[in-house]
């Protein structure tokens, strides 16, 4: 004979039990978040590194290299490409920026009032450029007074970025440890995330997770990767041509490029370097610098960046700009990388939600 089910508790008891269970779970979650909060930037940057380099890791594993060895090789690659150059640049970067701003102000005051004679002989644009040069020379003193306050603000921003770069070295090393965990146990982590996404959002949640990883790679390759390429290419070109402070100029090229809104300054920098070389009587190196700037630096911004971004997720330029500046304010130097990625993932989730919501 079947026994009757046990009587269910009545009154406030079940409500109190559920409330206590919710409080206990909430307390554990808050404790976990508080524990991870100091490492949030490193965890996010490490996850971005792991996802961005996952195709290379997958290729190494498919070729018979063990997961641990593949993770070690990728760590060495990141150390050689990011961490070691940062260690070399960071200590003297603040002093170099101060010296560079002093040189820029002095160069503005030393700029020749008369354009070179050959400039007027250029076809089509010679007369217009000569006239513009004369007008700029006449307004040089006034121009210096007008832009002086902006140069001070601009210098403070660059110094903040330089200081953030030095402070982010420990976070970079912690991020490498996080990335190594992903590279070593990536399949298990991916399965867990897929399972959680399916339980929360069903098939749509799993699709959003896959698309989000594509968005991470899109920003990592198209925005960050292209900016790194431009910075490295600029530093190499400046060093070959003998331009002073080549590493500083390369770093500034990276910062201007990743900010998007300041990217025209990348062109202004290599044009200014070419002009400086010409003013020093090094016409051949000036021509080389101009050609290098057109082919190796600016071409990456105009050709490679759009192609790589379109492969992942189509992001509006405004989203990238907000992500770069907001990420820097929120997370420091590494926020230049993290901010656009977070907004790209959020954009993917918003589009998926709008597509799944009935109108």
From TrEMBL:
Cell location: Cell membrane
InterPro entries noted in UniProt: AI-2E-like (IPR002549)
Keywords, alphabetical: Cell membrane, Membrane, Transmembrane, Transmembrane helix, Transport
Cited Pfam families: AI-2E_transport
GO cellular component: plasma membrane
UniProt similarity note: Belongs to the autoinducer-2 exporter (AI-2E) (TC 2.A.86) family.
This protein's name: AI-2E family transporter
């Amino acid at each position: 004979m079947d026994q009757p089910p046990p009587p269910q508790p009545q009154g406030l008891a079940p409500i109190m039990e559920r409330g206590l269970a919710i409080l206990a779970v909430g307390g554990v979650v808050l404790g976990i978040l508080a524990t991870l909060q100091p490492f949030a930037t490193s965890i996010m940057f490490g996850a971005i590194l792991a996802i961005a380099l996952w195709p290379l890791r997958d290729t190494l594993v498919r070729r018979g290299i063990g997961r641990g060895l593949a993770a070690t090789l990728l760590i060495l690659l990141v150390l050689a490409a990011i961490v070691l150059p940062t260690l070399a640049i960071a200590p003297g970067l603040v002093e170099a920026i101060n010296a560079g701003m002093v040189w820029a102000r002095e160069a503005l005051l030393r700029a020749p009032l008369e354009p070179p004679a050959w400039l007027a002989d250029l076809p089509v644009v010679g007369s217009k450029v000569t006239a513009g040069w004369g007008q700029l020379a006449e307004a040089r003193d006034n121009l210096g007074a007008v832009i002086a306050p902006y140069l001070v603000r601009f210098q403070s921003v660059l110094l903040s970025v330089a200081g953030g770069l030095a402070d982010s070295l420990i976070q970079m090393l912690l991020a490498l440890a996080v990335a190594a965990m992903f590279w070593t146990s990536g399949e298990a982590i991916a399965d867990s995330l897929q399972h959680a996404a399916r339980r929360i959002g069903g098939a749509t949640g799993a699709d959003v997770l896959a698309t989000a990883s594509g968005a991470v790679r899109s920003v990592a390759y198209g925005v960050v990767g292209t900016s790194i390429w431009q910075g490295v290419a600029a530093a190499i070109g400046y060093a070959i041509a003998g331009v002073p402070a080549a590493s500083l100029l390369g770093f500034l090229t990276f910062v201007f490029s990743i900010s998007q809104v300041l990217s025209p300054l990348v062109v202004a920098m290599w044009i200014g370097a070419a002009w400086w070389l010409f003013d020093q009587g090094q016409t051949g190196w000036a021509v080389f610098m101009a050609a290098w700037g057109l082919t190796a630096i600016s071409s990456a911004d105009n050709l490679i960046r759009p192609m790589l971004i379109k492969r992942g997720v189509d992001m509006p330029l405004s989203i990238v700009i907000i992500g770069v500046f907001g990420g820097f304010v929120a997370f420091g130097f590494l926020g230049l990388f993290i901010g656009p990625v977070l907004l790209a993932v959020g954009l993917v989730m918003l589009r998926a939600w709008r597509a799944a919501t009935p109108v």
